[in-house]
């Protein structure tokens, strides 16, 4: 069989504030295979992939069909990091690795409090979601357990070791493909 040069699809998910974008940016810089960072929330805004904007919650109601249509060719081509606070809408066949970032809820509260125009009710909702492990449950029920990895993201050392760990995964993934 010939080796495929399609890159992996890595989902980085977690409650807002856990460090997805920070991780995705660093990983895109350091990865041994080219990876394009897709900040899904930004894409929704920029490409109008939403049905409405909720003033009270300061958040968009995503048009999931439009979003999936936009992402499908990118996921098929591979070599992407999908950075979003939810993951269950991404088809199982897309994902090679699903990283769920976790953070102590009091630390998360402090991070979210620093965000501009971030309503208190959103801080409360996310704080509770982190305590209840909502995103982790979602990832575990949407993807095979062997591709779901839960990583702490509280300190800079965590960030560094998480990136190292994902890079090791990419190296192993690459080796598997080269041997195929
Ligand atoms: P997300 O994309 O999940 O909403 P982010 O990447 O914007 O989160 O990070 C939120 C804030 O927390 C930002 O100021 C960076 C900081 N942060 C995230 N992960 C961290 C870590 N492991 N160590 C130190 N600071 C971190």
TrEMBL record:
Q: What is its main location?
A: cytoplasm
Name the segments for region: NMPbind: 39-62
- Which InterPro entries does the record match to this protein? Adenyl_kinase_AK6 (IPR020618), P-loop_NTPase (IPR027417)
Q: What is its EC number?
A: 2.7.4.3
Cellular component GO terms held in the UniProt record: cytoplasm; nucleus
The UniProt keywords, alphabetically, are: ATP-binding, Cytoplasm, Hydrolase, Kinase, Nucleotide-binding, Nucleus, Ribosome biogenesis, rRNA processing, Transferase
**What superkingdom heads the lineage?**
Eukaryota
Q: Which reaction does it catalyse?
A: ATP + H2O = ADP + phosphate + H(+); AMP + ATP = 2 ADP
Q: Where in the cell is it found?
A: Cytoplasm; Nucleus
> Which Gene Ontology terms cover its molecular function?
AMP kinase activity; ATP binding; ATP hydrolysis activity
Which amino acid positions bind ATP, per UniProt?
17, 19-22, 116
What's any GO biological process attached to this entry? ribosomal small subunit biogenesis
Q: What's the stated role of this polypeptide?
A: Broad-specificity nucleoside monophosphate (NMP) kinase that catalyzes the reversible transfer of the terminal phosphate group between nucleoside triphosphates and monophosphates. Has also ATPase activity. Involved in the late cytoplasmic maturation steps of the 40S ribosomal particles, specifically 18S rRNA maturation. While NMP activity is not required for ribosome maturation, ATPase activity is. Associates transiently with small ribosomal subunit protein uS11. ATP hydrolysis breaks the interaction with uS11.
Q: Which PANTHER family does this one have?
A: ADENYLATE KINASE ISOENZYME 6 (PTHR12595:SF0), POS9-ACTIVATING FACTOR FAP7-RELATED (PTHR12595)
Subunit text: Interacts with small ribosomal subunit protein uS11. Not a structural component of 43S pre-ribosomes, but transiently interacts with them by binding to uS11.
Can you tell me which family this protein belongs to?
Belongs to the adenylate kinase family. AK6 subfamily.
User: What is the protein named?
Assistant: Adenylate kinase isoenzyme 6 homolog
Name its species.
Dichomitus squalens
């Amino acid at each position: 069989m010939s080796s495929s040069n399609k890159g992996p699809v890595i989902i980085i998910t977690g409650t807002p504030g856990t460090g997805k974008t920070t991780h995705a940016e660093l990983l895109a810089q350091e990865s041994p295979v080219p990876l394009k960072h897709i900040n899904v929330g930004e894409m929704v805004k920029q490409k109008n992939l939403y049905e409405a904007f909720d003033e009270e919650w300061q958040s968009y109601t995503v048009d999931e069909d439009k979003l999936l249509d936009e992402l499908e060719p990118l996921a098929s081509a591979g070599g992407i990091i999908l950075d979003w606070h939810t993951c269950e809408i991404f088809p199982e066949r897309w994902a090679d690795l699903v990283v769920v970032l976790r953070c102590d809820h009091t630390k998360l509260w402090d991070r979210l409090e620093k965000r501009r125009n971030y309503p208190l009710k959103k801080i409360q909702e996310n704080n509770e979601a982190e305590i209840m492990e909502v995103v982790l449950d979602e990832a575990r029920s949407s993807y095979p357990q062997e591709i779901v990895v839960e990583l702490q993201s509280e300190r800079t050392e965590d960030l560094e070791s998480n990136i190292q760990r994902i890079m090791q995964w990419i190296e192993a993934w690459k080796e598997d493909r080269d041997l195929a």
